[in-house]
Amino acid sequence: MEKMFQIITSNAFLSAIFSTIAIILLGYVARKRNIVGPEAGKVLSDVVLAFALPALAFSAFMQNINPETFTTGLTVFVFGFVAYVILIILGESLFFRFKGDQQTTLSVLTTFGSTTFFGIPIINGFLGPLGALYANIFNIAYRVFLYSYGLVRMSGVKFEKKNFKQIFLNPIVLATFVGLLIWVFQKTMPQMTVTVPLYEGSKDMQEITVGILRIDKTLPWLYKPVDYLSKLASPLAWLAIGMTLGNISLGEALKDRVVWLYSGVKLVVVPAIFVVLMLVMKSVVSLDYPAFMAIIIMLATPPATVAVAYAIKYDKEAQLASNASLLGTVLSIVAIVFWIIVGAGLQAFF
């Protein structure tokens, strides 16, 4: 209990939570007071998805590899695919009483959260580069299933080869795979000796040997723009979320009992199931605290924007999906804080 209290009262914890909520509120107020126009949130989202998040995905892998992080990373990669199979089963079974399009939409929105846009910036702010690294590895499976199972389930058509472009040529996916390959093979690629500070901010220098593609060390001038863009991901994403919320009235969503039920399942029940599952897994596979928390935060995110877009495009309970997105986004802020506190209490198990 004392350990948990120390974590939740630490500057790192309070800074991450306060920054998230404060910047989202800033975006909300800016939109409500017409400081920015109705399209500002969408434009900002496009910038984040096209530039800042790919840079964050790539830069997360610019760190040394050791046997522990490699083994944990491999566990997270494999578990990502297992997790999404479990999520699909949960989505289909938890809403079995609903029928037709309503059941389909609730199932898909439960399976796919806004992990890239909403989750990873928070993870980066709270857990730092190691948490972001694990989050991006876990997200590989998310992309594969979102553009395959999610599309097929919502559209009702067969999966076609042309959709592979959406999966594998997405800037974030490309940056993730390039960064992942550099991280995994950095010790087997040609090596280069470079001079770097003894520690960040230090004037004392040391020589180290790194893989030639570790551009954060071998070509720091080339890496610097990527670093700048990666640091923009979190604040810009939070501003965009606030501006988007400022465009919509909560009234409609608050009246819908199904949306409240969905939010409870998505933000409380599903993460709780995975908390238990990962605590059990911990005894047989390599899973450290940053990996555990990164996965839980990603599971406690609101429905994915792409999944909501599917519902609108294919006329699968578009109003329900929109309301779920709105209420889920508001409640997920509270849910993520809750799960971070729960995670702090469970840190002793890791």
TrEMBL record:
Keywords: Cell membrane, Membrane, Transmembrane, Transmembrane helix, Transport. The chain crosses the membrane at residues 12-31, 43-62, 74-96, 108-127, 164-185, 228-246, 258-280, 292-312, 324-349. GO terms for biological process: transmembrane transport. It is a multi-pass membrane protein. It comes from the Bacteria. One of its GO terms (cellular component) is plasma membrane. Its main location: membrane. InterPro entries: Mem_transp_PIN-like, Na+/solute_symporter_sf. Signal peptide: none annotated. It is found in: Cell membrane. It holds the Pfam family Mem_trans. Belongs to the auxin efflux carrier (TC 2.A.69) family. This is AEC family transporter. It comes from Streptococcus danieliae.
